[in-house]
Amino acid sequence: MTQQLFHLSPSDFLFPPCHFALTDPDGLLAIGGCLSTQRLRKAYQLGIFPWFNEREPIMWWAPSERGILELEDFHVGRTLKKAKNKLNPTVTVNTAFEQVIKQCREQRLHNEGTWINKNMVQAYCQGHREGFVHSVEVWADGKLVGGLYGIMVSGVFCGESMFHTVPNASKLAMWALVNWLKKHNAHFIDCQLDNPYLSSMGAKVIPRAEFLTRLKEASDYKSADDMWQPQELRAIYD
Length: 238
Fold this sequence. Notes:
- The protein is built from seven helices and twelve strands.
- It has helices at about 35-45, 80-85, 95-110, 120-130, 170-185, 195-200, 210-215, and strands at about 5-10, 30, 50, 60, 65-70, 90-95, 135-140, 145-155, 155-165, 190, 205, 230.
- The strands form two sheets. It has an eight-stranded mixed β-sheet, sandwiched between helices. Strands 1-2-4-3 form a four-stranded mixed β-sheet, covered by helices on one side.
- The N and C termini lie far apart (about 50 Å).
């Protein structure tokens, strides 16, 4: 299969098929375009996501292997159970989206650097206002101590980033998300790229073709009208 790098037009939202993505760097499919919410929706529906650093052009990716988390495979270890009992957290969805994405940005900005640049923050905040980008928040003693955000595409939650200010709070957010998705009969979580942190929670890698097939199979999913309304998730760890 021929690989080539595509340059996207700023005036339409078309993407090339994922099999044209480069092998080096793995998964780079296209550059350019914009971060409009129309383009973001289309990209995630096709299994494509943006990922680029400050002062780089917008880059769109469809890696040859995809990290996913099967909802039934989420690992709840003894340490995580102890963290839950110690914090006795309150968990909410979509009540503090801007705080969550900014915390995700700040945590990485001061450590390894971040792809969550200001344009990305603006784009995903707009997506949140339009109702397709969501956050899960973990609170302890009234303070936001962990969370994550991502995009719900049909029956798949595409995770973008997470943060914590106390140990295991981001894993508590993921645990809550998994249980919330189970309750609503969703399919799986798209983790995009594999890493040891996600693997410790049960994530695995599947080939791109299998991922795209499963994404298409999930396209008929319809979420409940109140699934992503701002709310507290009571008894979410039961």
